[in-house]
Amino acid sequence: xxxxxxxxxxxxxxxxxxxxxxxxxxxxxxxxxxxxxxxxxxxxxxxxxxxxxxxxxxxxxxxxxxxxxxxxxxxxxxxxxxxxxxxxxxxxxxxxxxxxxxxxxxxxxxxxxxxxxxxxxxxxxxxxxxxxxxxxxxxxxxxxxxxxxxxxxxxxxxxxxxxxxxxxxxxxxxxxxxxxxxxxxxxxxxxxxxxxxxxxxxxxxxxxxxxxxxxxxxxxxxxxxxxxxxxxxxxxxxxxxxxxxxx
Length: 247
Known about the structure:
Blueprint: E1 5-11, H1 21-34, E2 38-44, E3 57-60, H2 65-88, E4 92-96, H3 98-103, E5 106-109, E6 112-115, E7 122-126, E8 133-141, E9 150-158, E10 160-164, E11 172-176, E12 186-187, E13 189-191, E14 194-197, H4 203-206, H5 208-218, H6 232-245
Parallel strand pairs: 1-2, 1-3, 3-4, 4-14, 5-7
Antiparallel strand pairs: 5-6, 7-10, 8-9, 8-11, 11-12, 13-14
Helix pairs in contact: 1-5
């Protein structure tokens, strides 16, 4: 696959990067390199325009409330239309923690409303009592191209309670942990190739199979088209994350 290159656009990597988001990018880069697939990483921060046709995967991580609010307005003003166009043509858009909140309609922070870009129908509200949903988490997911359900394991730490619109599909069912709101039993959201989740710590090194699914989907391949790798260490990391969550 030497003629293929995964083109990734990292949104606000200087501001939305507090949950080991660089580890996710490094995981994709290494798994591409081991297979002879090229890897191209582009950063887009405040004020930067985004070309919807220039990237296969758009990535938005998590940040502190102040930074997230700053990025939210810029995302809405300068990148919203491009991300809608990218998603419409089949590019993968992945939002983690603060990222999932900004993929939706808005985030209510007390009396203030932070705009989202509306790629998915969801609303996030900060808990009135200020409590946070924290801990190791595991969810069961079913994704196109995979033979049966798989487990995603990670860590969650969010004060927002995310509620999906009636027509939206959650990324997975909570096996252990809190999920989107601590009550529904659902975690994340998936709509076509737009994916949001609260799982981090970082997500991809703990779930190599999901990294490969993202890689294949971004390149228009089936997961089985990717050359197999020796994933002894990656499997051990996944097993450790599952155990931490109580599975």
